[in-house]
Amino acid sequence: MSVNSFFTEISCNPKLPKLSGYSFSNIIDLPKNVLVHDFTNSNSIKGMHNPYSIGKYNEKRPNIYKGELFEKTNRFIHMGIDIGAPIGTAVKSFFDGKILSFKYNHLKLDYGYTIITEHKFKDQSIYALYGHLSKSSITNKTLGQEIHTGEMFAQIGKEDENGGWPPHVHFQLSLLKPKECNLPGVVSEKDHDIALKIFPDPRIVLGEIY
């Protein structure tokens, strides 16, 4: 996916649906006192292999994203929430919806096995990307398949199938329908303002997990 084309093709600012009155599920069952990372400085890799952890939304992460996939377009601002958990940990749907797309994003440090779901709130949709999953997560999946609040439908992947990262799920919301099974999970400063309008803070459905 061309990150530049993703943003240049946007012609309007989407509106966030009203979410008051809805109940949402955790996507990962976390223990108490989970490590919350600070990836804003060069020493931030410490603790990357903690069994359970959280990486923040809208965080500038210098020196984390290496290689052509990121450095060519100077992308380093994180637009989802990372939840670290052991390989094979159940990943659940935050709300009733359907599977919009699934794919193996094969590039080094990409999402690996990925699922995007669609969730309706009256006449508006929110899309959710779950990245860095296991290969088994997309086995026997079908487009349009219904999923339900709290339903386990995927698992945390290992490094040789999740893009080469420590085990975690990247969870990102989008107010625009993705044209393919991918979203810019990190963006450049040039695209940051519009990215904030398209990719809202996942805590609107996950709650105050940090």
CATH superfamily: Glucose Permease (Domain IIA)
Residues in β-strands, percent = 25-35%
The name CATH uses for the topology is: Glucose Permease (Domain IIA)
* Multimerization status: single chain
Say how many strands there are.
13
**What's the total helix number?**
4
Q: By helix and strand content, what is the structural category?
A: mainly beta
Task: Write up what this structure looks like.
- It is a single chain.
- The chain has a single domain (3-12, 21-206), classed as Glucose Permease (Domain IIA).
- The chain is 10% helix and 29% strand.
- The chain has helices at residues 3-8, 68-71, 192-198, 203-206, and strands spanning 35-36, 53-55, 59-60, 77-78, 81-84, 90-92, 97-105, 112-121, 124-133, 146-147, 152-155, 168-174, 186-187.
- The strands form 3 sheets. It has an 8-stranded mixed beta sheet, with no helix packed on it. A 3-stranded antiparallel beta sheet has the order 3-4-13, with no helix packed on it. The chain has a two-stranded antiparallel sheet with strand order 6-11.
- The chain is globular and about 40 Å long.
Could you give the topology of this structure?
Layout: H1 3-8, E1 35-36, E2 53-55, E3 59-60, H2 68-71, E4 77-78, E5 81-84, E6 90-92, E7 97-105, E8 112-121, E9 124-133, E10 146-147, E11 152-155, E12 168-174, E13 186-187, H3 192-198, H4 203-206
Parallel strand pairs: 1-2
Antiparallel strand pairs: 2-5, 3-4, 4-13, 5-12, 6-11, 7-8, 7-10, 8-9, 9-12
